[in-house]
Amino acid sequence: MSKKSRKKSSKRPSGSPTAKKKPLKTRASSQTRGAKTQPTLASKSSKAAAEAASHTAASKRLKSSEKASKPPASASAVSAKSLSAKSLSAKSLAEGQKAPAFRLLRDGGNVVTLSDYAGQKLVLFFYPRADTPGCTREAIDFTRLRDAFTAAGAAVLGISADPLKAQEKFRDKHSLGIPLISDEQHEMLEAYGAWGEKSMYGKSFLGVLRTTVLIGSDGKVVKVWRNVRVDGHADDVLAAARSL
Is 135 considered catalytic here? Predict the structure, then answer.
């Protein structure tokens, strides 16, 4: 073996440290890359799962709010049918038919019936609510003409859905001389077509329709005033009662 060959072989021995270090670096770098890749994939996966869960929760909240804001169609249909039925009943009383019987309490607690006024004329004025401006003026006008109605052979009764205490307070406050009937269950109001659909500020509701009914001495309905305008109304009713 030549001297050059011996020198080369002495510089690169078969078990040299250089030969061993290269594989270690390669394995270390591959492990480092793998370690970096795994957290990245895990974080992306967890982020995607969180976004999916958030989207699902938002969808549930949206559906829940939509259900809460929209009433069931069946409830709306029932309400519409109810209003329609009540509206029809408000137009059912006709002139010439027999006046519907009633039996209710009046201010003071006494019972009043239709038969109490058999053989005489009877005026029934239905008003929406005690001690409101229009109803007060109407009740005062009928009180003012009470003696004139008596002379014409006619009795006058006021009717609303107010409780007895409200009617009595109304009577005392304005010194009313007309008996006031309480019909909280709306039985008489419906029978005389004075209960039905009303509207205010774009909303529909059921309530007392300002109505007046004149009954003749034979117990039949002579005249019905609907959608009454208070001013001068009591005088018009008195004129009709006198003409019978």
Answer: yes
